[in-house]
Amino acid sequence: MRVRHGLILAVAWLVIALPAWAFLFLHSSTSMVVASHDAVVTPTLDGHARVEMGPYLPDLRRPTGSRFGVRIRLEKTTATSTGELVRRYASIAGHPDGEVRRVTVEVEHLARDAALRAGLLALLPIGLWQLLGAERRAELLRPTIRRSIGVVLVGGLVVLALAEPWRGSPTRVQSDGWIPAQQALPEVTVPKELMDVQVQGGLLTASTQRLLQSAFSGYDDSKMLYAKVEASVPQIAGLLHLPDKGDTVAVLVSDRHDNIGMDGVVEAVSKAAGATVVLDAGDDTSTGEPWEAFSLDSLDQAFEKFDTRVAVSGNHDNGTFVNSYLEKLGWTHLDGKPVEPFAGVRMFGVDDPRASGLGNWRDEKGLTFAEVKQRVGDAVCDLDAKGKRVATLMVHDANLGGTALERGCTDLVIAGHLHVQVGPDRIVGENGNIGYTYTNGTTGGAAYAIAIGKPRREAEFTFITYRDGKPIGLQPIKVETTGAFEVSEYLPLTLR
């Protein structure tokens, strides 16, 4: 009898909890940044991802491949022109995995939150039912005219409160439904990968068509260029220096400046080179603001399966958003303390003091670049004196590591910032120890502070090989603006 009673209660709980979950889930929403916009994301059951573009562009949607869907209402953005906004759309649409993953994660959070609330709500009537006891339940369920009238009245009031019939139905602009993008825009060439995209019907002005044509064209150009580069990776595989047994290969990236197109290229070449670590020397963004979360999502998506991911912020990663965002995604942030994130390699690093305005030496404010450079040197040399030599000092600007190198306290300083390769240069320190300084070019192919779309100059990333906790060689890889690879020879680092 107890088992039977328990099963009845479990079934009753499910009967209450499941519809409660569906109601709570479908009426929930979350605010987040999507495609460089503030956005409100709401789950649906129509099997489509719908993007509400605002008053000047038609809404777009495409199938999700499942019963569940999502509605994304785009709100304010920081773009200063329509052209800039369209370029962002084209770049993100061409490499959407990071944004898709983040929206999916947020919807999954909404589903779990709704399930928790529905489960707790379903316990309330069951708990009340149990507390009443059999005798009181029998008494309450005994029908009487007065009790029946009361139930009907209460039920009617609840329905009225939810339905609000006195408000009437608002007048809305009627849509002509959803039609394929190519049918809606016969004069625009829609890329074949986007043939399943639908446009909300209605009148499309000539200006709107030009904007959509620009977006589709930018998408196609960006997608085709980087797809071509990735497809050519097997052709250079034989030129890559592969690790020996016991070696660890790290890929150094810097100055991506929002160019998410290069992330897949770096990932593909890194796999071919046997890299398991990514070192990020900063300037992943142009301003360090939340609208650039798409760039960090793409970076994380590309390297999510790597064993170790380490980063510092550059001068364009203003404030704390970039650091905190990457830390939440599981990246190791170098903040003025020694760490050994992989293979016994001791690392040290700090953010560029021009980024946060804090000088970024622990919690002390107002330090200049020169003061931070001196303190980095003192800290690294103190470690060296204690027998805890820093194998790699990673900063955004190699000048920050100058003091440590000149005193002979570190094996390798790696950086970015200049957008061109400098080094590796061999430095004999004051104490006779040897170290190297190396500046990686711009991984995003950035000529300016932002590099959305095609690379504006040659893009670069560099493989660093470690053995027994020490750097033993570098191999720079460049991608020309035409998409052609330039693979440099492996450069041994002689530390004795």
> Approximately how much beta-strand content do the residues carry?
15-25%
Output the CATH homologous superfamily of the largest domain: Metallo-dependent phosphatases
Identify the CATH architecture of the largest domain.
4-Layer Sandwich
Helix content: 25-40%
* Number of E-type strands: 21
CATH class label of the largest domain: Alpha Beta
Protein structure class: alpha/beta
What does this entry show, briefly?
With 496 residues, this protein is an alpha/beta fold.
Name some characteristics of this structure.
7-stranded mixed beta sheet; 8-stranded mixed beta sheet; alpha/beta; about 500 residues; Purple Acid Phosphatase, chain A, domain 2
